Amino acid sequence: MNNKNNIQMIRKMMFRLLPVQILLAAAGSVNGIVSSYFASNYVGLDAMSAVGLYGPVSMMIGAVSTVLSGGSAIICGRYLGQNEQGKLQKVFSLDLFLTALTAVLFTAVLLAMGMFDLTGIFTQDMSIRPAFNRYLLGQAIGVIPMMVGNQLPMFLAMENKGRRALNASLVYIAVNLALNILFVQTMHMEAFGLALASSLGMWVFMFAEIGHFLSKESNLKITFADIAWKEWTVVLLIGFPGAATYIYQTFRGLAVNRLLEMTAGSAGLSAFAAANNLLGIFWAIPAGMQAVSSLLISVSIGEEDRESLTNVMRGMFRYYVPVMCGVIACIIALAVPLTYIFFKDPSQDVFRYMVSGLRILPLCMPLSIIKMHFTVYGQAADRNGFVNVLSLLDGLICVAGYSWLLKDILGMKSVYAANVLNGVTTTLYIIAYAWFRKKHLPRNMEELMAIPDSFGVPESDRIDVVVQTEDDVVRVSEQIENFCLQKGADKKRSYYAGLAMEEMAGNVVSHGFTKDKKTHSVEMRAVWKEDTVILRVRDDCIPFDPKERAGMLDDADPSRNIGIRMIYGMMQDIRYQYLLGMNVLTVRI
Q1: 447, 470, 485 - which closes a domain
Q2: C-alpha to C-alpha distances, 269 to 123, 282, 427, 579, nearest whole angstrom
Q3: Is the residue at 16 inside a domain?
Q4: How far apart are CA 201 and CA 146, in angstroms?
Q5: If we measure between CA atoms, which residue out of 17, 70, 81, 61 comes closest to residue 375?
Q6: Backbone Cα Rg of the chain
Q7: Per-residue pLDDT band at 535 (split at 50, 70, 90)
Q8: Which of 319, 418, 312 has its CA nearest to residue 366?
């Protein structure tokens, strides 16, 4: 298989998985837009300011949730690549246990802060604090389902049940909107009603997702009797660098909110909150891109697939970044009409502040996509130092630093400009890191990623073949057999390897290709590693476990399924999984 075919396969997976992940990421953003709309149109600037002040709190809760989901995703991706289903189950149980425990602690803290007016760290403005305290009480009710619910889409995607997560998100949006109409518009519950609507919607979201894992069809079961306790430190160590940005953003948010109060008062806080919440729906696009690439990168590392790993990053530059540039052009062009959703009087400061935000803030999004992807890659490759520095720059130093440096020149707009300068700085850091590792400016994608020479196997120890027709099947056996003989395998193993690949390829072409009207292909790979022949067959047809057919014997036709039964009879180690919408069969000889 040449590199062109591989990147086409990667592109197909990237865009097939992307819509669901974007919609999942957008669910929380829609909540922010709904809250901002009802706050600005039915309550007032105090409630809108409360929404803005809650940003750092939400960021901290989200950061902890991301530590757990990010660390678990990387570990589970490796186990998927290695076909270790038992270990995957144990990490799944560990993730849910740690998430539930942490969510209970956050709930207790928010309730105490709201009930006893312990919110002086967020604002000294006594006209805003009472509304903010009530908002905290309402948000506390939804912390548990929010944190648990945010862990499940990752595991649903692994089980190819992403549509369930999507449906849960759509239901959540509908419930949240309906409850805002009831609590805020009709019952006039103000800030508490805004938060309560979101919290109750989160409970619906979580229960809609969790049903799959309670069913018989789920491979992953919710049980605390089978937990990989020894992995908890690994989850945190791997997950922290990727989530560190959000932790730093908590402190950045406090600093930025203080600057906004100083330079623009409640109008500045309200405009920034409204702009951020509206842009949140568009930030769901980079977030979805990151979620898809996180799975693909971690699986590629688990399989030590150097080519696929670099092609994921090439796909990001080639497809994701241009798509995002088109999106931000539309946002900038529609800045004024979008502002009218929240504020109706163009003569007000809050209106002008928000228009400026919508024209400047989106410019950082394409650069953020690059930063997000290199963060995920750094996590998966155990480059914790690199990720920690990148997260510190992105989460705190650049935005807060540039904002305060430019505040006397640009006023409130310094916050907007700082986000763009932040993207430029993090991109330069990525290039500088590769330069340091390679001792020269990176000249290609592998050098920009600074992939170690020891990763994967050399091209000389691997052969890739793409099968698309019956004619291709006939040639597979000879190609694989000759490859094995050249690498030093004995004649018997070489013959079995060629025969196995021909049989498996023929089975997919004869049965998988004919089940629908789509165009399919089969990736055939043979690897020579440490005196072992490793065969991998990957196709994008409907789920098909050869092991089930291997055990089927038709009394009327004893020859039926004989090829699959023969393969299972010859080989000692055969593993199958349906991963990211693809059948993956791995055989060791």
Answers
A1: 447
A2: 11, 20, 29, 45
A3: yes
A4: 9
A5: 70
A6: 26
A7: confident
A8: 319
- Residue 584 belongs to what domain range? 460-588
Strand (E) or helix (H) holding 529: strand 522-529
Cα gap 199→196, rounded to integer Å: 5
Is 186 in the same domain as 310? yes
Indicate if 476 and 410 belong to the same structural domain: no
- Does position 449 have pLDDT exceeding 80, yes or no? yes
185 exposure class (CB count in 10 Å sphere: 0-12, 13-18, 19+):
middle
Amino acid occupying residue 281: I
- The torsion angles phi and psi of 513, rounded to 5 degrees, stand at -70, -20
| Crossing angle of helices 3-38 and 232-302, rounded to 10° | 140
Q: Across-strand partners of 585? A: 537, 576
Q: Give how far the C-alpha of residue 38 lies from the chain's centroid of Cα atoms, to the nearest Å.
A: 29
- At 345, the amino acid letter reads D
Burial of residue 505 (CB within 10 Å: 0-12, 13-18, 19+) is: buried
pTM greater than the 0.70 cutoff: no
- 269-312 tens-digit pLDDT: 788 888 888 888 898 899 888 888 887 887 788 677 888 889 99
Q: Which helix (H) or strand (E) holds 464?
A: strand 462-467
143: closest CA among 221, 70, 60?
60
